[in-house]
TrEMBL record:
GO terms of molecular function: hydrolase activity
InterPro entries: AB_hydrolase_fold, AB_hydrolase_sf, Hydrolase_4
The keyword Hydrolase appears for this protein: yes
Organism: Mesomycoplasma lagogenitalium
Assigned protein family: Belongs to the lipase/esterase LIP3/BchO family.
Matching SUPFAM superfamilies: alpha/beta-Hydrolases
Entries under PANTHER family matching the protein: HYDROLASE, PUTATIVE (AFU_ORTHOLOGUE AFUA_2G14860)-RELATED (PTHR43798:SF33), MONOACYLGLYCEROL LIPASE (PTHR43798)
Signal peptide: none
Location of the Serine aminopeptidase S33 domain: 20-248
Entry-linked Pfam families: Hydrolase_4
Alphabetical keyword list: Hydrolase, Serine esterase
Name by which UniProt lists this protein: Alpha/beta hydrolase
Amino acid sequence: MKYSYPIIYKKAKNKSANPIIFVHGFNSSPKSHNIFADKWNESDYYAIAFPGNSLLKAKRGDEISVESFARLLANFIKDNNLNDVVLIGHSMGGATIALAYQLIPEAISKMIFVAPMNKSSLAKKDDYFKTYFPKTFEEYKTFLNALYYDTKPLFNNNEFMKKEEEQFDPFLYNNPDILKLGYSLPDINLMNKIEDALKKIEIPSLLLLGEKDAVIDREQCIKYFQKHLKNLKYKIFDKTGHMIYYEKFDQYYKIVSEFIKNDYSKEKNV
């Protein structure tokens, strides 16, 4: 398989749906969506890594930016002769798939935006800067509170928290590459480019949002996507934060798999 960075690939047992590519969020990795990949058997599944995230070094002078990630994604699709692809983008990955679509629209069949980065998120940029770059373990717990609707199951798990504290490394969240990428995200020029890309998407698209998200204004995000996407369905997950597929996996899997396999063109939302 042609790609310069790590890939997760799962070959379908029964190909009854179009291939999926999962695009991870800021400072995350392809394995973050393995909870879905482990259950999915309806089509080939791919998840690709992007440099600068999770200490992954860039190669061949690749830029550490959302626009560069979009080019890497488009080239991955081209180089591996993939067609009728379903793109799933989480957070920063939502912006990445929007930008990638305009580079290779003929190869993409559906789009799924999971708590996506978008211009309406600029209203919460102060919360983003306060939470996504922890330097101490206490700040890391604040970061977890920003990601999840309810952190009690995590914080009350003494074994989990002990392991997390032992493994916490502030460099992961404050190294030069991730700081450069992180501070480039809430930029109006980038957001305008993402908005222009969203306006060009006419294929079926699904927007998934949590009830409480530290970096997404739920209602403003819905209005924003409804304004700029022509063929949009949406779903709000109650008692869920930014990490929808962890907090409500069964519901997430059902909605995503049905959207991939079915025609929702006549439905208002899912």
